[in-house]
């Protein structure tokens, strides 16, 4: 069945600033119509197989042992412990991110460029220029490798972010080494083919304020991530859901663990052996959730295709595409399921 976008409302973007400001309104008892993502769950489900109604939920238990790499052919995500990133550093990243979101609104416009690939970008939802229904989310997006960028406030952000990004890259390298072994390819092949020495790393901080109507709004719509692996931490407020066998499943993370999410470009490079994970963020009416997503991709100029060694015995399942072009296609449109990945998937 072809993908169809959810039913969308109308709004004026002129009045849109940030969800945090809206959520803190003293008289907010319901959400504006342009945040009503699930206006008619039954109708949405009928037209969109990627979206299930919120009641279709089960809870998964996280593993209690270190995970070096996800199992081949999985569409799951794994918590990783014993990863080498100090717990106090993870807490510091979340705390200093909260400081950024708590800056006075008049200090934030300098971080709101129109170009979706600017190295420092603050905004709301995903792409308000294209969306008719917004996500209940504010974000800070920063390109941190191969060149390190950072907002100049709050003052502690630079030092904390630099250390966390460096340690995150070390975790990713270890995971990709294990994945290379599982694919039967040399670690150097992945490194050279994907330009990992100059890999693009993007820090994204997400703020999901309390919502008076959590069954109607969505923190971020169902989607898969671009890139190879996303490392995710949060402030112990639940909200991440994964789609598994047609159902949405809550993810509960162990303390001091990092959730690892497979991205589109690992699916492409593995020729489909690893599947990118369809996930979404839900909101609640009690607590604000903060999550930190660290995207780790190839170098921006890499043309990503299935690994050459795999194609000795397999037909290619994806057409080559430059990573930068893929990134631009995703970031400049509505965020919706695996719509960009489908463009490069070869249909049998």
Automatic annotation (TrEMBL):
This is 2-oxoglutarate-dependent dioxygenase 19. One of its GO terms (biological process) is response to molecule of fungal origin. The keyword Oxidoreductase applies. Belongs to the iron/ascorbate-dependent oxidoreductase family. The keyword Kinase does not apply. Pfam families: 2OG-FeII_Oxy, DIOX_N. It comes from Sesamum alatum. GO terms for molecular function: 2-oxoglutarate-dependent dioxygenase activity; metal ion binding. Signal peptide: none annotated. Keywords: Dioxygenase, Iron, Metal-binding, Oxidoreductase. Residues 198-298 form the Fe2OG dioxygenase domain.
